[in-house]
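Human:
Focus on the backbone:
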Amino acid sequence: MNTSVMLYGILLLSVLAGACGGAAELPHIVIIYTDDLGFGDLSIYNPKAAYQTPRIDRMAREGILFTDAHSPSTICSPSRYGLYSGQQIFRSTGRGGGAFEGPGGPSYLKPGTLTLGDMLRAKGYRTGVFGKWHVGLTWYDHAGKPLGGGFDNAKLIDYEKSTPLVDGPNRRGFDESYVTPNCPTTDPLYIYIENGMVPVPASIMHKRSNLPNLDGWLWDNDEGFMSVGYDFENADKIFYQKTLDFITNHLDRHKDKPFFAVLCTQIAHAPVLPAEEFRGKTKGGPRGDFVWELDVLVGRLLDKLDELGVGENTLVLLGSDNGPETVHYHRMKQEYDHDASGGWRGMKRDGWEGGHRVPFIARWPGVIPAGQVSKQMTNTTDIFATLASVVGYELKDEDATDSYDMLPVMLGIQAPDDPVRPYMLTQSFRGEFQIRQGDWKYLDHKGSGGNDYDGNGILRAYKLPELAPDAPGQLYNLKADPGETTNLYFKESEKRKELQALLSKLKSSGRSAPTGRKPMGMENIRLRVSQRQLQEMK
């Protein structure tokens, strides 16, 4: 018998089996959520990058790369809320959401909010999160009074009264966790939190002079309260190892369950502190070495999944919480001719594209067709509904209210010219709104929405002339004007009014996602994959 005919027959049988409703194995899932990694910080997105990221580039070539992906916010904490909840931050706070500093708290993830961990645990997953938490934690002083933000409050924590943490990861859907409260190398309190407990309480003061001198890249490291043995330089190696330990222990002890792991890196947030083994490995200076470290750790993780025999059945997602830091953007541009925003206007904190257009890559061998490049508009919040679709979890209308299912795009069954999202919300540093509809983008504020391009000396070089100085907002057509240079607020008043009305509706309605979302589920996924393979063989 002809080999191709035989293979066709085998695939046909698998299709029929799928159609008969045979059981399908749930995949393992890993999310790698990077920090301040701009659209232009990976060589797969930026051929002119000052360094290469071959392992992440390979991951993209083995799966799907999105070119119109966005973070929910232009700063850390609100975007992480969007990842874990599938919602914009104003749904939790009623306003804009800033980044937590000091002890912080209470959590943006309020009791009763369905989290990614909750959902996947309900479907039989064992769940873990490792690295930067940064969505708020509640700490108590010796009198049992909750402490707010502010670095000085770190000295007042009573660890016995505070732990197990009332709103830590283990109370928000995760079976295992090893996290830092905020930015691991930026914000005191510098401690590790393991499963809601603090193994070594903070008892000493950290001094910046104890860190290696990396040519001024340490500017955002704040001195403050720290635990003995806390390690700044190896933060991401520690988080990677904890993630790997979780996966390997899971496969040893819980073979009957799939795993879900979230690895939240410090890279490429300030300060730039590549581990010693990665220093000097690129021609992009310390920050190039820092991103190189990320690339190596991602490659090691993918190789380890293969070595453990689960690579083919693991969905891996990689994204970022916002665009590149201002100082990073400037120095990389000036010293290495590296555009961390990838040609888009703005950077971290800004409502312009450079503040929230970010890398997003998905890899699932044999399920997601390799080599896809998608122009579909998507947001980090969409990870929630997409994973719900994968595992067959039917979301209630009140869950993940800003999340769209991007699985049909990933599977290659959604036509490129058939948008999943009719519109998208993002928020800038001050909580101000931006809304996209097709090529049109409306910013409900003047200026950047974040950075001060007049008062900050390094940013003056990137200030553009304001062509509509009297306009209280901004309207751009990204197809005709991707650099957001020409404000059409007055010239295209009908389109602006349309987007203003839509924004008001999406804010007041409590959702931007559709109601009645139905998951695809693994049986249908396998069926679609088999059908696609049959078509490819014809």
